[in-house]
Amino acid sequence: MQEFIAFNEQRAEIYWWMSSLFARELSDADLHEYHGGEMYTFLSGLGMTEDLKAPVDTFRAAIKKSHARSDEQLELAADFCGLFLSTPKSGALPYASMYVGKTGLLNDKPAQEMHELMASFDIAQRKEFNEPADHLAIELDFMGNLIIMGNQQQTEEQREALMQSQLSFINTMLLNWLPLFTKECQLRDRFGFYAAAANLLLAFCILDKKFLAGE
């Protein structure tokens, strides 16, 4: 049981890490960690899983390439803004509504559904992150919380119910638009750091879906 709880904690940490990556520009302190030994060890561990080896290698190459930029923090911040804080015509906006909504506008049905889902599990959005509920960072943060909530259940039936909720969430709220978002990142991200991150996230979500489905 303890191994299962620890494994779930690792899953949650990956979702939270990816949430932070798509929530805001990386700071100098963040980049120092990205180029340090702990991140190298963390990514090496992920890459030991066959399904993640190629996307991890691509992301590690993007980190190394980023380190060679003359003003890394400012240039990556410009990449972030150009991709995620611009317009649908020039960027890859990180909102589900832009890919599976009906209007092509923010706060479409996916945002409403996400808001209702968070309320049903009594999981609150961070007040300092004032974005529509279907922002990628919010959805990934929610998934991390859902995983930890599953760990806190007292019975096998309760834990299984939360696992099924996680599987449903991946299928209906993440994998229904993440492939489209990843494709847009690959088309728009000239430098490639965030495209590699999105590709790794997509591969991890697909792998996590297999785990939850018992495949």
UniProtKB/TrEMBL annotation:
Keyword set includes GTP-binding: no
SUPFAM superfamilies associated with the record: TorD-like
Signal peptide coordinates: none
Domain of life: Bacteria
Location relative to the cell: Cytoplasm
GO cellular component terms, A-Z: cytoplasm
Family: Belongs to the TorD/DmsD family. TorD subfamily.
Function according to Swiss-Prot or TrEMBL: Involved in the biogenesis of TorA. Acts on TorA before the insertion of the molybdenum cofactor and, as a result, probably favors a conformation of the apoenzyme that is competent for acquiring the cofactor.
Designated name of the protein: Chaperone protein TorD
Organism the protein comes from: Photobacterium phosphoreum
